[in-house]
Amino acid sequence: PRKIIIDTDPGQDDAAALLLALSSPADLEVVAITTVAGNVPLSLTTRNARVVCEVAGRREVKVYAGCDRPLKRQLVTAEHVHGKTGLDGFEVDEPTMPVEAAHAVDFLIETLRAAEPGEITLCTLGALTNIATALEKAPDIAPRIRELVMMGGGFFEGGNITPAAEFNIYVDPDAAEIVFKSGIPIVMMPLDVTHRVLTLKRRVDRFRAMGTRVGDAMAGWLDFFERFDVEKYGSDGGPLHDPTVIAYLLRPELFSGRACNVEIETLSPLTVGMTVVDWWQVTGRPHNAHVMREIDAEGFFELLTERLARF
Ligand code: BDR
Ligand code: CA
């Protein structure tokens, strides 16, 4: 199996991504989950990561807490999307599995240094604060990372927290800039992809029909998450952003895109956090990311449903 570290701010869609990864041990080995502040403050994202592990019956997964605020800015959160806990929609007991003692940034540095070069893939589902902090402290880790697959940004689709910016990049644009300049091979799942995978009722019903705790949790979380987006997206479902990252590792043929240059706006008050994607190759700036644009939405939901039914 391919070794991955998932850096996340759960979040119902992050939860779907974690479950998809944990459902597929023959393909993916989840070395650890690292948490970051984003959708809600760090204490809650760290709680929620453990909630998901416990729902999955995987209390042995290692969870490391990371940065509690962006590099240079005040934290912006999204309770309006994810609810007060960040993971509203399904009743759970408070998690009892441990949080590892080390800071996520130190864990990332030590693990990448100890692994063979190219052994570890990073999957990022939130702001890039932990990764950027690790790169600043230990620039030698960059060439050791096999690939960084992120949910973040948007180009033809625009933004979701401002007209120009997608939430994960907006929360910490300075961190995103460091990551995009790092030379790590990046695969980017922007809103252009994630807005194509909507949690339609017929899709969520299939999770509920599993009659399992994971199926019930997924249905409850997605019903809650959807409530926010129904009016906005004019459909009976909201976009299921983060599991596209894991789906890409399992079934890359579901996606298509192209290699581009991507730069991050960090200065303009109007467009801060914008991912400036040179899709038409008009600048001659070097390619630094593989930017996805298309997804086979039915294939994606088939994969997610089939894998979650394994719990
Ligand atoms: C991203 O923002 C978060 O609210 C979601 O979990 C996802 O990672 C979408 O813009
Ligand atoms: Ca997220």
User: Going across the major beta sheet, what is the strand order?
Assistant: 3-2-1-4-5-6-10-7
Residue runs with pLDDT of under 50 for 5 or more positions? none
What overall geometry do the principal axes of the alpha carbons give? globular
The whole-angstrom Rg is 18 Å
In total, the number of strands is 10
Give the N-to-C terminal Cα separation. Answer: 18 Å
Bound molecules: beta-D-ribofuranose, calcium ion
- Sketch the major β-sheet: 8 strands, mixed
Helix content: 25-40%
How many helical stretches?
A: 12
Write down the overall mean pLDDT: 96
Order of helices and strands: EHEHEHHEHEHHEHHHHEEEEH
InterPro entries: Inosine/uridine_hydrolase_dom (IPR001910), IUNH (IPR023186), Ribo_hydro-like (IPR036452)
Keywords: Glycosidase, Hydrolase
GO molecular function: purine nucleosidase activity
Protein name: Nucleoside hydrolase
3D architecture notes:
The chain has 311 residues and is of the alpha/beta class. Helix content is 37%, strand content 17%. The protein has helices at 12-22, 42-55, 79-82, 104-114, 129-137, 167-171, 173-180, 191-194, 201-208, 213-233, 243-250, 297-308, and strands at residues 2-8, 28-35, 63-65, 120-124, 145-151, 186-189, 255-260, 262-264, 275-277, 289-295. Strands 3-2-1-4-5-6-10-7 form an 8-stranded mixed sheet, with helices on both faces. A two-stranded antiparallel ribbon has the order 8-9. The protein is globular. The protein starts with a strand and ends with a helix. The mean pLDDT is 96. It binds beta-D-ribofuranose and calcium ion. Calcium ion binds at residues 9, 11, 14, 39, 125-126, 242. Beta-D-ribofuranose is lined by residues 11, 13-14, 39, 78, 81, 125-126, 151, 160, 166-168, 241-242.
